[in-house]
Amino acid sequence: MFNTQPQPFTAFPNHKENKMADTKIIVNCETGEVQELELTAEEVAQREADAAAYAAQKAEKDAAAQAKADAKAAIADRLGLSADDLATLLG
Questions:
Q1: CB of 36 within 8 A of CB of 25?
Q2: What torsion, rounded to 10 degrees, do the Cα atoms 32, 35, 41, 44 define?
Q3: Spatial separation of the C-alpha atoms in residues 23 and 39, rounded to whole Å
């Protein structure tokens, strides 16, 4: 089977995903003052809702990409084409 999905780019491949901090940083560019404040319950809830929506959207996109790759692989298999042949034909 062909897997034509691009691999996600990660700037730090050895970085383990950590839970997000419940703080925000506010920088006043005029004074250079930097404040680190706790998120409100509403901000935490919004962040979690946004993360869930992103995860659902990403899963849907990944499933569509995998279905497309599977369809290409099935067609190539029926035609007796190798991965290299298919890549050459599709450019």
A1: yes
A2: 70
A3: 5
pTM for this entry:
0.58
pLDDT in tens, 25-76: 999 999 999 999 999 999 999 999 999 999 999 999 999 999 998 998 888 8
User: Alpha-carbon distance 24 to 11, whole Å?
Assistant: 23
Residue 24's identity, in one-letter code, is K
Query: Burial level of 59, CB count in 10 A (0-12/13-18/19+)?
Result: exposed
* 64 within 8 A of 56, measured Cβ to Cβ: no
